[in-house]
Structures are given as C-alpha cells and as structure tokens.
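Quiz preparation item.
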C-alpha cells in the first residue's frame, strides 16, 4: 500500500504522534502499542526520514497540561517547520467544501494540506477520525489530485514502519475499531483540535492566526522553510463550467 524508496523521504509528524511520544507509559494494550510504535519510529527511523512539522502542530502541542506541553515543544524543537502558503489555504477549503474533512475539523484539513502542498511523502498520525480514516483516504486523495497536487501518503507510524519491513510484528487487537477507539491521550488531542477549530469561522481567519504565530516564531529565531515546488503541480483539466 505504501511507497518506499532508498531516497531519504520526508515525514510530516501530526500532533497525535507527538502526544503519544511524551505520555506516561500505559497498561492499556492499544494505547501502549501506539506509544511503543511512536517511540520506535522516533528513535529507530530518524536516520531514514526527515521529520517535519508545521505551525498548526506547534499550536496544538502547546495546549493542554503545561508540563506535557513543554515536553512536546522540547522534543520537536529541532524539527524542520513548514511555512504556511496561500496554496495551502485553497486546498484546505477544497477539503472542507468537498466533505473529505468535516468543516468543524479545520486543523486536520490544515495538516493534510500542508503535507500535500509541500510535497511531503508521508503524513503519520493516530487520528483515525479525520486523517488516517480508511473511509476518507481515497476521497482526500481525489481532492488533492483534482487541485493539482500529488497526494501525501497518509498512514500510522506502524504502517510506515511495516512498509520498510519492520522486524518486530505489530501487536494485533481483534475486534478493534480504530475510528471509534479513544483514550486519554487522543481525547486531549481531539479536545484541543475542536477548541482551536471553534475559534474560526473562515479559512482566512484561521490562516491569519497561523501566520501571526509563524511571524512570532520567526521573531524568536525559529526558522520556517518551504518545500513547495510549482513545477510538480499536476495539470488540472478545465471543465466546460470553467469557461
């Protein structure tokens, strides 16, 4: 299902993965398995990939428990941060208008659009509601292609590591539905996403909020980069309605 080459690929680390990274070890088998997979990707595969994040990732991981938030900020402090671009705003709106991502989940659409516009090969997440949702992935892919972009490969850390022949078999959980599963870590992530999304009625307002945060970061010496390459855009066929 996933693509893999010998070239060092970029991986967009969505905020749920970071939350599992710093959380206290759990006795819950599903939660513990996700913690283990997140740690393994972070520690054992960093030399195979370039991990990247964005301003919306920083906004989400700064919320919640102060101590945990500080740990999340520290653990991502050396990662490449991708710039917000006008093309991202356009793609976010297309994802929301099409229903590929619910309108009340603007931050999740932002994650997908950033990774896609910046030509990031993979987006890893544990958010099965709106990002690594098996029933939504094809729709998301279609919208990105229709907008002229090569879609990012959306997957969980476990799926990414399986694709490069991870030696240790992942833990299986019979009758487990990832779309409805929740735990304290995910509950906090979903709450933060909902709170951020509820503050903004339009993509313009949301983009201005992210841009202001980006400018503040830059004044504090934090570097942002762009991987966007217009030459890689897929030609979009015009319909008769476009005339």
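Solution:
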């Amino acid at each position: 299902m996933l693509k893999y080459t010998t070239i060092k690929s970029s991986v967009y680390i969505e905020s749920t993965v970071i939350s599992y990274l710093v959380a206290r070890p759990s006795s819950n088998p599903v939660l513990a398995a996700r913690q283990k997979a997140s740690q393994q990707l972070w520690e054992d595969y960093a030399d195979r990939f370039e991990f990247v994040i964005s301003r919306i990732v920083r906004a989400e991981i700064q919320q919640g428990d102060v101590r945990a938030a500080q740990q999340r900020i520290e653990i991502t402090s050396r990662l490449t941060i991708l710039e917000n671009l006008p093309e991202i705003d356009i793609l976010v709106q297309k994802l929301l208008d099409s229903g590929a991502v619910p309108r009340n989940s603007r931050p999740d659409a932002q994650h997908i659009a950033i990774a896609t516009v910046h030509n990031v090969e993979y987006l890893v997440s544990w958010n099965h509601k709106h990002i690594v949702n098996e029933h939504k992935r094809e729709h998301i892919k279609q919208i990105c292609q229709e907008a002229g972009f090569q879609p990012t490969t959306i997957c969980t850390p476990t799926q990414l590591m399986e694709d490069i022949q991870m030696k240790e078999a992942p833990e299986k959980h019979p009758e487990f539905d990832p779309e409805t599963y929740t735990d304290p870590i995910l509950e906090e992530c979903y709450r933060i996403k909902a709170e951020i999304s509820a503050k903004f009625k339009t993509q313009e307002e949301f983009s201005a909020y992210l841009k202001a945060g980006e400018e503040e970061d830059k004044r504090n010496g934090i570097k942002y980069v762009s991987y966007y390459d217009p030459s890689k855009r897929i030609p979009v066929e015009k319909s008769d309605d476009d005339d």
